[in-house]
Amino acid sequence: MSAPKATVPKFGSFKPKPAAPHPEPEKPKTEYQTDIRHKSRGSDEKGERRRHHKRHRSRSKERVPEPPQIEPTRASPSTNSPEIFIIDRKGDVKNLVYGSVHRYSVPPFYRYGSGYVLGASLDVKIDRNQSEDKGVVLSNWRIPRLREKYVFSRIERERPRLLKIRPEVLSDTSSAIDSDFIALQNPRGRKRKRGAEDESSDDGEKRDYRSIYGKPKDSGQPLDEDLQYATESDSSGSDAGRAIKTDSSLRQRNVELSRKVDQFPQDITAWLELIDHQDVLMKVGDDRRRLTSAEIRSTADIKIHMYEKALEKAQSLEDKERLLLGLMAEGTKIWEVKVQTDRWEKISKENIDSLLLWTSYLNFKQSTFTTFRYDEVREVYLKRIRLLLGSVEGFAENAREALYQQLIYVMLRLTLFIREAGYTELAVAIWQGLLEMNFNAPKEAMMKSALIDSFKDFWESEVSRIGEAGSLGWNHYVKNSIDVEIPDTLTDEVDDSLINADIFRTWSAAERIRMKCSQTPARTMDEVVEDDPYRVIMFSDIEDFLIQLPPNPKGLRRSCVDAFLLFCRLPPIATLDLEIAQKWVNDPLVRDELLECSSAWITNEYFSKSRNADSDIGPPSYLHNPFPNCVGTPELLFGKTLAGNDYFSSPPSQQSSFEARYGGDNGPISTTWILNTLKQLIQAHFTEDLAEYYLAFSYHHSPTTIKKIAKDLLKQHPSSLRLYNAYAMIEWSRGNRDIANGVFSAALAMSSGSSSSSTVNKSDKEQEQSNDAIVLWHNRSWLSLEATDNPSALQHLLSIADGKPDPSIALTPTILLRAKQHLSSTRDYLSSAGDFGRAVLYTECLALLTYLTSPATTEPQSPTQGSILPVLEIYHSFTTTLLSRLTKAQRHTPLSHLTQSLTRLLTHHTSHGPYRPSLLLRTTLSQYLSLLPSSTPLLHLYTHTEAHLKISNRIRTLLSTSTLSPENDCLSSRLFSIKYELENGTVHSVRAAFEHAVESPVGRASAGLWKLYLLFCVYGNPGVSGGSGEKEMRARAKDVWFRGLRACPWVKELYVLGFQELGGGGAEDGSRGVSYEELRGTWRVMGEKELRVHVDLEDAFEEIGELERSGKQRRLAYK
User: Fold this and answer.
1) What DSSP designation does 166 have?
2) Would you state the pLDDT for residue 755?
3) Measured in whole angstroms, how far is the alpha carbon of residue 858 from the centre of its chain?
4) CA 719 – CA 769 distance, rounded (Å)
């Protein structure tokens, strides 16, 4: 019996062979073999191979039955699809010959599933950013990422390896020294014979990453055949090991510093060097590497431990301040807000006598969003005032001035804080009380209690106070309390109309109207809003803030006036030599003028200026700076701009600075009130510098009435040479040069008469007036020089030695030598006497005389120009004198005056002749910028010289390395960098400048800077390039607004500005609109932070909610 026939499984791919076997066509194989043999990869052969695979697939489709239709899933591809696999039972014999599969025989394939993994959850996908060659990383794609991976993080973790030239290359190049050409490639590579080792190496380099043999092994050598990696022994000596030695040298430095603090534990400077060195150790080997958050926290923990050990050894207050500020700076990186608050409160209690630590504690309390409350921060101010007032009596007479200076600074910060929180009436009332108490107090001696009672009667009588029309002062009220007049009743303008469809924008408009009415305190008889308890200021509201300064020293009252001007957002009269006064000017919470400027003015000043298409033709224009960091001099007070810097924010020929900046009289303080206050202060306590300032401000505000104001002052003080100088410069600026020359001649003739008398018989006042004559000579010479009247300027300079104008004087060697000797000797005498202010004026006159009389040098010059090289030597010589004789705090004012003088002369020199930026000019400016990195006139002139060359990196390097460094950083420099990028950069560079500014210590709590950033995001800038970047910035406006509120929670203006710019609905605001719920929540935050709100919206919110629920108003525009 025969065995049963075996059942052969039937597959679609194994059909019985036909009776007459049909051999496969040999043509494709032949072409394929020919292609392998000749290694030709032309487009025709590629097309033939594609047709070959297509015929294979067509035959397979004829033999294989069509499978049932199954819908594939995302992670489960159809594996029985006929197009995925190609069956080749015969293979290619050439694979044995060449040792691998032909690369063009491998069909192309693609990954399927968009990152999903078979068998894994559908919530996870392959993370391409975190996956590496060794494996893949699965992550939940439904959870949003916090940030993108830093693409260079893996490269920066690798430690760089040193390279050296191969010895055989050195031997080859030594023989080619005598050649008459330089070979770009070593010829030895071409002479090498191709052996088996080279073939395998080339094959490894060309091996595909999908090869069955795996990835080719790393040869361990660089790609350049002429180089090789240096070993440890190679890098131990010579220059090749310089980078490797860095690690050991830095660690050796750390050991040396550790030993130093062990040997001298009281050396706080060594402790600080050791602490700062920890940051260097963390980046050893690669300074460009980014530190991870874990590294930052661990380093901060180590530094905190070192700070605490150093504090145990600190003895002086200055050392404690340096250590505690560094400790708290590191603590912000790892401590919670509550821990920081507790530490700051402990520090403030243990270091009561430190203004610096108290100011840092105050800044922390004022700018911490989570813990900020208006009443709590105000109580911090009040405690400090009480502490200082209680401490004054226990100090000696010579030490009280510093405490009173602290009191003035605290009062300035307090009143600014109160006004920015919305309580403008209280802030103005405090300053009215301070000025009345110190400038209009009764002349009779009184006990302190009687004095307070008298002032209480004056305040509650509601007569006109200082700054108001018809005010005669407290002293006049005491003498004539019966014959006083009560001012007329005032009525507030009220417009509380709100539109539900645009509730927040209409609220911001109504709120600004009410804020304008609250510029000054109201009286009980005025018609004000009934439910506003803050409009009328009683005596009890300001009683705790009244301070009476001692009559001596006189500098305290000058500081009080400067603080008042800063409160009014005006530049101070002059920067005092005191270090604390310099800090006032550079304090970002004090000099924050941009905060209360109108949005229209900011947009026009910063964002509306487009690039000049013809900027390559002629000299470039200066950047305009409305808020310069410089010393107030007559040329800035009355003249034109100095290298683009305006002292009062606008030239006198244009609209008034306050009217332009605040859209009329809508500023924080009424312009009329400021003018009245300055006028009444001069009447009560006349000083020449205050009168000069009053004339300048009146000229910029109302140039039509300035002639009458100046003549009235001259009638009251006919012997004041500075007032004559101010009036002459005003007339010259108005175009009346003949009148100005007449005023100059009359004043100089008067000064020559007083100087002719005996010096012994002169009074102090007469001697002061005689010394002021140099101011007249200096300004008259400069005005003639700027008018290109060089002979007249030279005539005035030669007449200084005679003390009176001489129209017939001529230039002779004898007269020139006498004039130079007089100027230089007087300058040296004043420097020895400590009068560096007038010594700078004599130096400047000597420089002008040298400029006009020195022979030509190698520097090119036109007939209207002078010789600049000898002038620079004069400035350098006197700069050396200032640096050698004065401390850093003392030399700031005279050195600033000197550099502004040099800037003025260099500006004149470059603008009156062929424009040619030279190395000499750049070198000179760089030297003075190293002394005064934040001087805006110097920065503007330096930018002007470089702008023609279109080299921006040099200016950006100067900013990053010097001007914006932590020790030199200030708000004016940050505004300059932003202005520069707006004029010369892109949207992205401007955004980077803004981000660096708001992240810096000086700009983090600057509300004006945040306001500028928000307006830039909203309106963009047509002057910078990058259209897509502008759209991106508009979309970021909401984020910038919220960040600004978190950084400056006390500033009401930021809240109102956000509602005004982002609170509306509609298609045009879709890219930056904020939802209704977010706006409502933000509005309620103002109440939580106890800020002043005039117009309440809770009733409107309830009405909107009822309309929504009833369906009468289906949807608001914000939703």
Assistant:
1) -
2) 55
3) 40
4) 8
| Residue 401 to residue 393: CA distance in whole angstroms | 12
* Nearest C-alpha neighbor of 438 from the set 289, 547, 594, 564: 547
The DSSP bridge pattern shows strands 163-165 and 227-229 to be: antiparallel
With a CB cutoff of 8 Å and minimum separation 6, the contacts of 644 are: 621, 622, 623, 624, 625, 940, 944
Bridge-based pairing of strands 227-229 and 124-126 is: unpaired
**What single-letter amino acid sits at 738?**
D
DSSP annotation of 283 reads T
Per-residue pLDDT, 921: 86
For 165, the enclosing helix (H) or strand (E) is strand 163-165
Which pLDDT score is estimated for 50?
47
Helix (H, G, I), strand (E, B) or coil at 889: coil
Quote the radius of gyration of the chain (alpha carbons, Å): 40
Q: Which of 563, 623, 554 is nearest to 587 (CA)?
A: 563
Residue type at 317 in one-letter notation:
L
Question: Which residues are CB-contacts of 700 (< 8 A; sequence separation ≥ 6)?
Answer: 648, 650, 652, 656, 657
3-state SS class at 664: coil
pLDDT at 241: 47
pTM score of the predicted model: 0.78
Helix axes 706-716, 721-733, angle to 10 degrees: 160
DSSP 8-class letter at 961:
I
Report the distance separating Cα 517 and Cα 535, nearest Å: 9
pLDDT tens for residues 815-834? Answer: 999 999 999 999 999 999 98
**Tokens (6 digits) for 596:** 């209360």
Q: What is the pLDDT of residue 28?
A: 44
- Looking at residue 517, its pLDDT comes to 87
Question: In this predicted structure, what is the pLDDT of residue 436?
Answer: 95
Q: From CA 241, how far away is CA 119, in angstroms rounded?
A: 53
Contact 477, 1078 (CB under 8 A): no
* Residue 836 near residue 858 (C-beta atoms within 8 A): no
Instruction: Give the position of tokens 């100087």.
Output: 755
How far apart (Å, rounded) are the C-alpha atoms in residues 591 and 899? Answer: 22
Concatenated DSSP letters of 568-636: TT---S---SSHHHHHHHH-TTTS-GGGGS-HHHHIIIIISPPPPTTTTSSSPPPPPBSS--S---HHH
Question: What's the rounded Cα separation, in Å, for the pair 459 and 465?
Answer: 8
Contact of 924 with 869, CB cutoff 8 Å = no
Classify residue 822 as exposed, middle or buried by CB count within 10 Å of its CB (0-12, 13-18, 19+). Answer: middle
Are 726 and 698 spatial neighbours (Cβ–Cβ below 8 Å)? no
Distance between CA atoms of residues 363 and 357, nearest Å: 10
Residue 429: name the closest of 418, 420, 439 by CA.
418
Q: Does an H or E element contain 139, and which?
A: strand 138-140
What pLDDT score does 211 carry?
57
Of 756, 778, 869, 881, give the one whose Cα is nearest residue 823: 778
For residues 910, 913, 914, 918, the Cα torsion angle rounded to the nearest 10 degrees is -30
Amino acid letter for position 711: K
Distance set, CA 307 to CA 293, 357, 708, 1054 (Å): 21, 16, 63, 37
Q: State the Cα–Cα distance between residues 489 and 933, nearest whole angstrom.
A: 52
Q: How many CB atoms lie within 10 A of CB 421?
A: 23
Q: What is the pLDDT of residue 574?
A: 65
Look-up of token digits 């700070």:
307
Residue 842, phi then psi, degrees to nearest 5: -65, -35
Residue 714 near residue 728 (C-beta atoms within 8 A):
no
Residue 893 near residue 932, CB atoms below 8 Å: no
**The two structure tokens encoding residue 176:** 């080619």
All residue ranges of the chain with pLDDT < 70 are: 1-86, 108-111, 131-134, 144-161, 170-179, 184-220, 231-247, 284-289, 574-582, 609-621, 648-659, 664, 753-770, 914-917, 948-952, 1021-1034, 1064-1073, 1112-1119
